[in-house]
Design goal:
Blueprint lengths: L4 H12 L2 H8 L3 H15 L4 E4 L2 E4 L1 H27 L5 E7 L4 H15 L3 E7 L2 H9 L5 E5 L7 E9 L1 E6 L9 E2 L1 H5 L2 E5 L4 H13 L4 E6 L2 H7 L7 E4 L12 E6 L7 E8 L6 H17 L9
Helix pairs in contact: 1-2, 1-4, 2-3, 5-10
């Protein structure tokens, strides 16, 4: 809406860190954009941005203002979605951040299912770790976060959580593939490929190593699940994945997965949540409810329960 346009300009400059870069994004001249910023700074009586040799950054006053701007813009999107609902046609945009484990199966299935019912709703889905997820929520870049262990911060409001156990992933030819349940001694007997330290699965594995008093033989560390999964075809090592990140049918490809004894590596919690205190747009709120229900009915086993 036109009355929010100046706020949109400031938000774009803040994200870009450059008036020239923001002007390119907004398809206006950098001179025109700079005039608008200067006019608002004059109205406020303080600089919004600090001018640097290369770009700009928010001043202290600007940091306060940008939170107000993003709250206003998010509130307008919520109102627009509520107005659209009055016509009986659900519209809106849902922005989600989640861990890599959810992308191939769960999140793709849930977005497709929701859009079959509400084709006018659009989505953005970005990968991030649990720490970055909070930043995405507080900056209003994301409506929802679906992240794995641990999620302990006052800014995060859980909407649901489901217990998830780790699975061992390996090539079909790996000696451990003959077993259906792996214990700690099994994990110690083979090299492992681990996710990076910011990953929730890595957190659980580090806790298990600390508790057991011995370390797994780490030969590969990567933040790419695709790389690790493909590497398993080249060397007899194992990696780890959440049950929700694996296809529902097992043992149908060169790569297989096996259960891990909870006494070796305990399960952790997968959270669905939002920024605390924020009222979500209708589409985002309903999608959140849908994925919490999907977790409850599709991904809960005897050892995994919804909270």
């Amino acid at each position: 809406m036109k009355h929010l346009l100046p706020l949109h300009y400031i938000d774009t400059v803040a994200r870009s860190g450059s008036i020239r870069g923001a002007a390119n994004t907004l398809a206006i001249t950098s001179t025109a954009l700079n005039r608008r910023i200067l006019a608002m700074e004059e109205e406020l009586g303080v600089p919004i941005f600090e001018r640097l040799p290369r770009g700009v950054r928010l001043s202290t006053a600007g940091e306060l203002l940008i939170q107000h701007i993003r709250t206003q813009m998010a509130d307008m999107e919520r109102v627009k979605s509520q107005i659209a609902d009055l016509s009986g046609v659900r519209r809106g945009h849902v922005s989600i951040v989640c861990g890599q484990a959810l992308l191939p199966h769960f999140m793709a299935e849930q977005v497709a299912s929701y859009r079959r019912l509400h084709p006018a709703v659009t989505f953005s889905v970005k990968v991030c770790d649990r720490n970055t997820a909070i930043d995405q929520l507080t900056s209003f870049d994301a409506d929802l976060a679906v992240v794995f262990e641990p999620m302990r911060t006052s800014e995060f409001q859980p909407m649901g959580k489901v217990e998830q156990s780790l699975k061992a992933v390996m090539s079909r030819s790996h000696p451990l593939a003959e077993k259906s349940l792996l214990g700690w001694s099994d994990l110690l007997s083979t090299p492992v490929a681990l996710p990076t330290a910011s990953n929730g699965m890595r957190y659980l594995l580090e806790e298990a190593m600390l508790r057991k008093g011995n370390d797994l033989e780490k030969i590969i560390e990567s933040d790419s699940y695709d790389f690790i999964r493909n590497y398993l075809r080249h060397e007899h090592c194992i990696s780890f994945q959440l049950g929700i990140g694996l296809p529902q049918e097992n043992n149908t490809s060169e790569i297989v997965y096996r259960d891990i004894d909870e006494r070796a590596v305990p399960s952790g919690d997968l959270y669905v949540g939002q920024l605390k205190g924020r009222v979500l747009p209708v589409a985002a709120a309903l999608f959140a409810n849908a994925i919490v229900k999907a977790l409850e009915f599709q991904y809960v086993t005897n050892n995994e329960k919804i909270a």
